[in-house]
Amino acid sequence: MEQFEHAIGEIFDLIWEMVTAILSVIPTILKFITWALLSVVILPCVWVASTVYPWWVEWGEDF
Questions:
Q1: Cα–Cα dist 23/4, whole Å
Q2: What is the pLDDT along the chain (63 residues), one digit of tens a residue?
Q3: C-alpha distances in Å from residue 1, one per residue of 4, 10, 12, 53, 59
Q4: Which helix (H) or strand (E) holds 57?
Q5: pTM of the predicted structure, to 2 decimals
């Protein structure tokens, strides 16, 4: 019985260590995902501001 309790304790310790390791990585993963999503939004806005806006100015001169 003592060996069974020891084995269960070791398994619990292993699972706890795995959960702790995963929880320590989650903030880094979330930061990367946030960075990627923001770049998908911001980069097209920068392209529009630098490329399309001067065309709008030229088109507006005719009015």
A1: 29
A2: 889 899 999 999 999 999 999 999 999 999 999 999 999 999 998 888 888 888 877 787 776
A3: 5, 14, 17, 77, 85
A4: helix 53-61
A5: 0.53
